[in-house]
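Suppose you are handed only two things: the residues of a chain and a line of SMILES describing zinc ion. What would the bound structure be? This form records exactly that question and the answer produced for it, so the two can be stored side by side and reused later without any lookup.

QUESTION INPUTS
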Amino acid sequence: MRYETVIGLEVHVELATNSKIFCSCSAHSFGADPNSHVCPACCGMPGMLPVVNKRVVDFGMKAGLMLNCDINRTTTFDKKSYYYPDLPAAYQTTQWFAPVAVNGVVEIETSKGKKKVRIKQIHMEEDAGKLVHDIREDTTHVDFNRTSVPLIEIVSQPDLSSAEEVEAYLERLKTLLRYAKVAECEMAHGTMRCDVNLSVRPEGSDKLGVRAEMKNMNSIEAIKRAIEYETARHIDAIENGTEVLRQETRRWDDIKGKSYAMRTKETAGDYRYFPDPNVMPVVIDDAWFNEIKSSLPEFPEVKRARYTEEYALSDYDAEQLTKSIALCECFEGAFEVTKNAKDSANWILSEVMTILNARKMTYDQLTLDGRALGTLILLVTGGKVGRANAKKILAAMFDDPTIEPEKYAEENGFVMSNDTGKAEAVIKAVIAADPKSVADFKGGKEKALMALFGKCMKELKGNCDPQTLRKLLIDEINKA
Ligand SMILES: [Zn+2]
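ANSWER OUTPUT
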């Protein structure tokens, strides 16, 4: 019998707001001392009064609209009760009855073509703290810096059916949320986390099989491996009776490449959801809704089409640039200055990419000012700075975003010289010092010319037009 895998995802995304969801503590405590970013509200002290951070609702709405959801114009917060040492109030404030966004859809593309994945809902909630286990002292410490850091949970319908689709879906979420600048979505940093609900059923059946929920996955590769392992485990159980499948929560051990049962899956009733009386309902009026709607970016596909039509870029260039909003902004800034789309795209897709790769930076970490890049490009096309030196200036601009390319070129001796007298003097000295290369070139060895050319260019610190230098050099050799 043939089987199909049915997968739904719950994706937690940390929102990139400055402060926490219900208090003014900083939401960014990376590297900070434990429990240094806390107050009575985020520590769940009795009597504390949480106040909803408006930016969190802004971002929740933006995420909802990017994923084609309907926005609940009155959205409310609820208590999800459970006990765990990293949850000081013994309940998490989340959204159950009226989440900020519902009924969305995201289109993905895989080797099998395009597919629509329905979004059940997006709800806003607070993160829990962190338990830090100290093996040497045989103790566990609790750090509340992360409590009440704002999250959204994006719940999909069970519309996914393979590891490839899951990967495409996660990539799509990442792109859309990064375009809207609401989240970093970096699994390696913990700003995107994913629970996978998976079951297996005979192909063509419309009945769902027994569902397992897998937690504890922190990379797309781990998620893909876990899906393949679980699919095989379920099929084996159904076909060969190796075990009785239960609805349960499982932990994925990426090192062993296996999943283990943690607990039988809780039902909603176990959490005693009820409206949080301390948090007022949030009413989104037309003005607020429209403000958020008009602040949304162009969708990647719309941008891509515009880049090929308006700027006459190739499909490939447009696709590469629109992979990240940071690349798009850099390109659009550079174009404003150069008015030359091809040059602007080429510089980003070659020189800028080279530096990003060498520094192991993601596209979204690019902070280079597009207009400054445009100025640098004009210095090169205008013959003021040589390409090799322009690359050095570009690297410096990565380190210091305040650098003005023209000023920097002047201050650091990167301006091309039109002084042929200076070039000729250098050429004469180089020729005199290397009669062998001169003789080799005269004897027909083209490579010898490149050696001489390289020495001259080095002496001139790259500040000479290569065509001119080459011509002067050949003239001088012929005279010798
Ligand atoms: Zn706080």
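WHAT STANDS OUT: Residues 220-240 form the longest helix (21 residues). The chain has three domains: 3-286, 298-411, 420-479.
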